[in-house]
Structure formats: structure tokens, C-alpha cells
Amino acid sequence: MSVMMARFYPLVCFIFLLLPFLSGAQPQQVIYSWPMSMLSDVRGSYPIALLHLAIEKSGTDYQLVPSGQVMTQHRTLRQLGSNNGLDVVWTMTSPEREKELRPIRIPIDRGLIGWRLLLIHQDNEQKIQQLDERQLKNSPSVQGSDWPDYPILKANHFRVLGSGDFDSMFKMLKARRIDYFPRSITEIWPELQQRPGMSLAVAPKWVLNYPAALYFFVQKDNIELANAIEIGLLRAIEDGSMQQLFLQHFSSAIQQADLKSRTVIQLTNPILPAETPLKNKMLWFDPQLGY
Questions:
Q1: pTM of the full structure
Q2: Which residues touch 78 (CB under 8 Å, ≥6 apart)?
Q3: Residue 256 pLDDT more than 80?
Q4: Which of 23, 183, 192, 198 is the least buried, fewest Cβ under 10 Å from its Cβ?
Q5: Tens digit of each residue's pLDDT (9 = 90 or more) over 69-80
Q6: How far apart are CA 183 and CA 35, in angstroms?
Q7: Starting from the edge strand earliest in sequence, which strands make up the sheet with 62-67, in order?
Q8: Looking at the domain that runs over 113-209, which CATH code has it been given?
Q9: Residues 229 and 51 sit within 8 Å (Cβ to Cβ)
Q10: Which domain of life is it from (predicted)?
Q11: The pLDDT value given to residue 16
Q12: What is the SS3 assignment for 106?
């Protein structure tokens, strides 16, 4: 080795060591819309676990990272759409959301978001049980004013108030300013456990049902990430790992809901996008099968 080569050899080796990083070989970060401060909240555990599973099954080299702060649903979707620090959200679909964002049209919770039990004040249990369907619709309830559920209930002639503050809806229920707060099977039990001092309960007898899809959404032009998530989900469906994860997280809640013994009020969903894959039965929850 010449004196000149010997002098530059360590520098050449250092450059070669840096090449994987300079060429972008590090995993690309994907920020999902669940803040780090809420990682212990069980409501986020399934979609986060499923997103990890989908990325793993896709064979892509993405690094999933939680977001930095708690935001309202409206602000979260705006931030994703403006390409401002978010890459993936999971939320119920609507025509507006599919216009602004790119949906991966596989309902991640098999449509359980559209199976709604009624959260009530425990002192109103007998009152709610004795109502008929017309009386239930005329009783005051609440939903998020920017949630798709709000216009769905309105279109089905429910007396529903809109609120922009999630915690205030539970306070309204505690103060009995409303009679019930419809929550999905996947949400209601954790939310009840998180508020032991509010005298809340799950109403007997009733369950509302409307076709609804909870999707992963990405930015409109992020085709690469959308394809990775879709491929991963399809592979997880095919090999049964998505079913296994779904049952691991929700079988207890499904059993506790005891849908077969409840009176189902079937609602229409006028804002369900036409592209929703309702005919693909393998993607949707069947209460008779429990999956």
C-alpha cells in the first residue's frame, strides 16, 4: 500500500460505513395518530398492534412512531391531510374523509364501530329498559359534532346533541342532561372502567347497528405506504393472524355485549361511501359467529 493510500485508507473505510445511512437505508419513520402519553389506554392497543402486524406482513422497512400530542379528531384529520407531522390515522370513514385522505378499504375492526351499546347513568337503567324504539329515539343523547355518527343518528331521527369535547359528553351523562351516549362494543367497556366514580352503566336490552367502516387512512399522495398497509392486512387475513389478534382483543367484549339477547335497532348509514366493500362477508363481523 502506498503512503498516499495508507493516509486515506481510514477515511475511505469511514465513508463506506456511512454509505447505508447516506443512501437512506435507515427505516423510514411513520407517525401514527395515537399520542405517546396515551399508549397505556387500551382503546388504542388493537389498531396499533394491527398496524404493526400489517407493516411486518408487508415486508417493508417502516418504523412506527406514536404522535406527540393529544388532538381532537377534527384536528388530527386536518393535520394528516396537510402533511404536517402525521402519516397514519384510524377513523370511521365518510365521503369527505375519503375525498381528502387515502383510505385502505379493509375495516380493521370488522365493522364493530357500528355496533353501539348505550352508556347511561346507572339510576336510569330501568327507565331506559322500559322505553320502546320511538321513545328511545326521542330521548336526548350525544355524539361528537365532528363524528360521522352524529349525522347518522340525525338521519335516523334520533334526538342527538353534538359536542366538541369528548370528556364533556361523559359529564353530561353524569349530570343526566342526556339519557344515553352510544358507544361501540370496542370502546364502551374500557371507557366505563376508566370512570369508576361517575355512576355510569351499560344499558340492558338495546343495541344500535349501522354499517360503518373503521379504516387506516394515509395522506392522499402516499401510495407507497397505503399499498404496504393494504398488502400487510390482506396477508394477515389470509394467514389468520388478523383474526387471532381481533379475538385476542375483542372476544371478551363481544361475549359481554351478549348481542343475541338484545333488541337490535337497525339504522341506515346515508353517508357510507359507495366503495365500502359490504359484499365481502369475510371482512365483517357476524354476531351469530362471534367474529
A1: 0.85
A2: none
A3: yes
A4: 23
A5: 878 788 889 889
A6: 21
A7: 62-67, 28-35, 88-92, 214-218, 102-104
A8: 3.40.190.10
A9: yes
A10: Bacteria
A11: 37
A12: coil
